[in-house]
Design a protein that fits this description.
490 residues; alpha+beta; two-stranded antiparallel ribbon; binds adenosine-5'-diphosphate
Length: 490
């Protein structure tokens, strides 16, 4: 799957989580609103119910005062309260379910209220009003008053009304408590769920980001590793595991590049090997004719030494020197081409000892002195390091016209390698030849010098190049030379 698709998927997943959070919050807020509405409606119901009971007291008070005093003002407050109670009963019946216990109670309350007003309060009020208008109705009023007031039925209706209302408000209070608990529960649930969903969304977002970063960086790390391997000369490395993402074309290109490099270097290595083989074979073949010339010159000298003039002797000497020089050139070429052929194993090498061995091989002249600073011990290919020192020290002695030939060898430690220095007080080199002297068969006008073949520094260069080490020469004609090179610690 493509990385962009992972990003889209992650994004959609997080969006879904947020949508779910919003939906749950919405649903929970609906429940909260429902409960809040119920609580406020319930408060209204209980308030109205209490008002109804207060109105009954007002009606009782107003009627009694009217019956006692005949003041119209009292009957007005009675009538107002009576009318309000009718309205209250109507509005309460719209607020409660008619089929519920509260609905039934309301109907009973209405019946009791109607019974009270129809049978007691209204007849008394009318009788009193008639008695005020004409005193002949006073006897009627007194009769009605006695009939109504002293039977005890009115108290019974009042008690029943009170009991019904108590039951009605008790039910309302318990319903309200129940909804209050529900409201508290749903508020808590809303808070908890919101928190959980938000934390989950953030966690999922972090996980998605981590996954994508890990996926990309893993692939890039592999390609980086491959590039590193290629720079270190390992062209066979490939970035495996094809994946259908945006980095796939880059992976393919890198693999193709590595393949192309590998093919080219295999070809190059092969042609180098063939060239070395060719040099090896040619050197061997050339040795034969040279040996033949040397033998012929020796035979002439041995068999005809009486008849040879000094001039011919001189020529024969020159032939021998040139043959010797030719042999040195062939030997140099052979050792140069052998470098890749020889398998060298590693061992612990004390470089101080190694330099002393080099001097033993070279057998320097008596006017030679060596200044040797303490050199390190290395686990390395002894033969190769010996070849490098052998060529540098022998050059320092060879290309030196000082009365006292002095060579100093010292080393500086670096992070992964040692840098070695071979300094001489020889004839020095013009800076323009610093590169040329490292090419094979390149000499600087010492062709006459019987020991100069131009192979020594080419061997040094080949060894150091193979080991991917660096080398340098600092020199001035007449002021000696300092050759330096690095050598890995292990
Ligand atoms: P050879 O093996 O014949 O000595 P090299 O390849 O070692 O040849 O050196 C190439 C040339 O570099 C030499 O002919 C010489 O002119 C010059 N050269 C090398 N080393 C030194 C040195 N220490 N001082 C002066 N010249 C040098």
């Amino acid at each position: 799957m493509k990385i962009s698709q992972y990003i889209y998927l992650g994004f959609i997943f997080i969006l879904l989580l947020f949508s779910a959070t919003t939906f749950i919050n919405f649903k929970l807020s609906e429940a909260v609103i429902e409960n809040t509405t119920f609580v406020s409606r319930s408060t209204e119901i209980t308030k109205t119910a209490n008002r109804f009971q207060r109105n009954i007291l007002t009606m009782v008070d107003g009627l009694h005062s009217y019956l006692l005093t005949g003041e119209k003002l009292f009957i007005l407050s009675y009538e107002e309260a009576n009318k309000e109670n009718d309205d209250i009963l109507r509005s309460l019946s719209t607020l409660v379910d008619q089929q519920s216990r509260q609905g039934k109670l309301l109907q009973e309350i209405k019946q009791l209220n109607d019974q009270w007003t129809d049978e007691y309060t209204e007849p008394l009020k009318q009788a009193k009003t008639l008695a005020i208008v004409s005193p002949r109705h006073l006897e009627d009023f007194n009769r009605v008053y006695r009939n109504r007031r002293f039977t005890g039925d009115e108290e019974r209706i009042q008690r029943q009304l009170k009991a019904k209302f108590r039951e009605f408000t008790t039910i309302e209070y318990s319903l309200r408590d129940m909804h209050r608990v529900k409201l508290a529960d749903s508020t808590r649930l809303t808070r908890e769920l919101s928190l959980i969903m938000n934390v989950a969304s953030i966690l999922v977002a972090l996980l998605v980001i981590r996954f994508i970063i890990k996926k990309i960086s893993r692939r890039i790390e592999r390609m980086n590793y491959m590039a590193r391997m290629i720079t270190e000369g390992n062209y066979d490395v490939r970035v495996g595991e094809p994946e259908a993402d945006e980095l796939e074309p880059l992976r393919n290109s890198l693999n193709h590049m590595a393949e192309a490099l590998s093919d080219s270097f295999t070809l190059l290595r092969k042609s180098n090997q063939e060239l070395d083989q060719y040099a090896h074979v040619v050197s061997h073949d050339l040795k034969g004719p040279l040996r033949g010339i040397k033998n012929i010159v020796t035979w002439i000298e041995e068999d005809h030494h009486h008849s040879l003039t000094p001039e011919v002797n001189n020529y024969l000497q020159l032939i021998k020197e040139r043959v010797h020089w030719g042999e040195s050139l062939i030997e140099g070429l052979l050792s140069y081409s052998r470098l890749d052929r020889d398998q060298t194993s590693k061992e612990l090498v004390d470089v101080n000892e190694l330099v002393k061995e080099v001097l033993d091989i070279l057998t320097p002249p008596p006017n030679f002195t060596l200044k040797l600073d303490p050199l390190p011990q290395l686990y390395t290919e002894r033969i190769l390091l010996q070849q490098v020192f052998l060529n540098l020290v022998s050059n320092g002695i060879k290309y030196n016209r000082s009365e006292r030939i002095e060579i100093q060898i010292y080393a500086q430690e670096q992070e992964t390698a040692f840098q070695f220095f071979v300094a001489d007080n020889g004839i020095g080199i013009e800076p323009q030849y610093f590169d040329r002297i490292f090419s094979i068969f390149q000499t600087l006008g010492e062709l006459e010098h019987e020991k100069s073949t131009g192979v020594g520094l080419a061997i040094v260069k080949k060894i150091l190049d193979n080991k991917k080490q660096v080398y340098q020469v600092l020199s001035e004609p007449g002021k000696g030379s300092v050759f330096s090179f690095t050598w890995p610690k292990s």
